[in-house]
Specification:
The chain has helices at 22-29, 39-45, 51-62, 82-99, 121-133, 151-156, 171-186, 215-226, 260-276, 288-297, 322-329, 343-352, 428-431; strands at 2-9, 65-73, 104-108, 139-143, 159-162, 192-198, 231-237, 251-257, 302-306, 333-341, 357-362, 374-384, 387-389, 399-401, 405-410, 412-418, 442-445, 459-464. The chain has 496 residues and is an alpha/beta fold. It has two domains: 2-276; 288-472, no CATH class.
Length: 496
Amino acid sequence: MRIACGGVQHETNTFSNTPTTVADFARDSGLGEDLATGDAIVRLYRGTGTIQGGMIAGAEAAGVELLPLLSAHAQPSGVVTAESFDRLLGMFLERLRKVLPVDGVALDLHGAMVAAQHDDAEGAFIAAVREVIGPKVPLVVTLDLHANITRRMDESCDVIIGFDTYPHVDMHERGHEAIVLLARMIRGEVKPVQVYRQLPLVTMPPMQCTLREPMQSLMAFVHDLERQPGVLTATVSMGFPFADIADAGVSVLATADGDKALAERTADAIANRIWELRDELQPKLTSVDEVIRFARDNTQGLVIYADGSDNPGGGAPCDGTVALRAMIEADFQGGVVGVLYDPETVEQAHKAGCGATIDARIGGKTDDRHGAPVECKAYVRTLSDGKFIHQGPMRQGFPGEFGRMAVLVVGGVEIVLASRRMQLLDAEMLRINGIAPERRKLLVAKSAVHFRAHLGPLASHIFDADTPGIHRPDFANYNYQKLRRPVYPLDPISTP
């Protein structure tokens, strides 16, 4: 039994003015400029907490031959250029044709990619793969919890399996599930029937977190339904609201073994439960001044201020300075801001060397929506090459690289700077720069939710930031032009 696998992953923030190109995918994927295939993918991903790692393990468990064709991902940013999307899709299809015939295909996609010529880029990708393999070859797709799932995605494949967690700590499990289910389909052991429901609802990242209510109870409810006899899998996708496309928002999928009525009942039960929770899914934000006052008075340990508005994991520039400036002006002691993208200042720090004091111009260089550069004298405390291995439950064991890094000190605030844009989601990202977060009073994390998986247990309190930016969890901040209407909470709706 031969199963081809691979895909392209990008979470596209259409409010970002930074286009995404093939060069971004080549840089971030860790597989070289030609995005190597086969054994190179296996060597990179085997034993890691990733979708591809789970697919490799699933293939070994199911006794099938896995044919990895492409694994391309880029840091979230603006719209993928037309040329880049066509090239990546063409690369995958060319490699797929070379290994035909195959018994099945497993695609590792994100679900919120927007290309210049495709608002529904994954729908176009899946449909193109289906055209190559024909209608009878089983096709299973894994998607992120933030996927904006469309009818075209649903209709072009046999089964969609979405992440159950945010932070995404179950990627390995979902990859494993996809391959094992696909093998059962090929052997004729199951005949999946998938049902899709789209709700007139959009939600923001902070309350999509499955470590807090109401998502914790919602996912327990979903897992109970998945244990029904005949139910193969169920997916809740909370959507990505920073993509201004018609299908942005919440959707549900349920898949049963040859029983459409069961799949429909399951999907409807989940959709109805989500609709009942719609008001609880709206976040509460805290101002910078409030969290500084709280952290000063707090003696119970680390306070984390989740600066989700500048979250690079959702396409923000990651060089916002609003919280940093407020901490410096308040002469806060024991604070850390990280990881902030500023290759120019990193280079300046490396040239000056550890122990030097530099005239720095920190952050605020990408646009004018996340705060102006902070001009100050800064002490260069540490320098590093930015290489690390994920130690937390999200992407555990997978190598990461920030490029060259520097830690600057201004007053009582440490600023962790990087040459590459990447979300702070693992404590190791700070520890390689000599910072033990549990020994600090206030950490401004350039992340919305993912930091909670590894850094969350170190914190006594966590607050969602009321700061400006293109990933701000506030619908009043966005002028939607393409989003379907009416949709809650932008419009008053009483029934779905």
